[in-house]
Amino acid sequence: MRLWDNAGALKRINNGLYVLVVLSLLAAAVVWMMNSPYFPIKSVKIDGQLQRLDAAQLQQTAQRHIRGNIFKADLHAAREAFEALPWVAEVEIRRMWPDTVQIQVSERQPVARWEGGGLVDSEGRAFDAPTDEPFPVFSGAAGARKIMVEEYDRFRAILEPTGLKIERLDYGQRAARTLTLDNGLVLRLGRLDAESRLRRFVQAWHEVLHSRADSVRYVDLRYKDGFAVRYRSGEETPAVPEQAASAANPHGDAEP
Q1: How many CB atoms lie within 10 A of CB 230?
Q2: The model's pTM
Q3: Domain around 205
Q4: Is there a single domain that holds both residue 99 and residue 117?
Q5: Total domain count for the chain?
Q6: What is the mean pLDDT of residues 186-197?
Q7: Are 228 and 114 in the same domain?
């Protein structure tokens, strides 16, 4: 049977040609739209709660990377350019018909300075950015940054009733925590039960230590029930809250 005598085959060929024509027209339409002067970007909107980012720098970045035809603009390259700015945490860019590009910027929230250089944000990520703002100093293994941020927030909340601020958080061997406060006082929290130990300090601060704050060098809280105090004079005195005095053994139960 000849092809032109096969109605079914001719119909399939006809349908295939029709699909090819439609696809070709669609492709041509896309190419025309992407290169047409009739769809220019007329407006770029930048939104976000910005405190440290320079609005002029954001506008300059947008002007360099988002221009021309709205369909042809390389938003991926624009996103990378914005994310390369020091204070930018995340950025979302989208086209809004017919002539607008909207940019939503999230700013990094710095929490601390990292010993050795740079800053640490609220997600525990290290970054470099110029700032003269005072931040506490974190010191430890790079992999501990996130948990240090989380614990710093909890430690700060526990200390709030005392009015004391954390100036430094050190993560030593096996995650032994040491805090340096804004009055120069050093708190050795150790590896275990750091938050409960810090609460014990807060209680003792109001009951015992506040009146002698200027003479205290450090408080060692690495004991099961109590703590030890070293004074600036060199004197070292075991001390515990009164209600725990009978149970405490400050010289025998220190965590290594």
Answers
A1: 16
A2: 0.77
A3: 110-232
A4: no
A5: 2
A6: 95
A7: yes
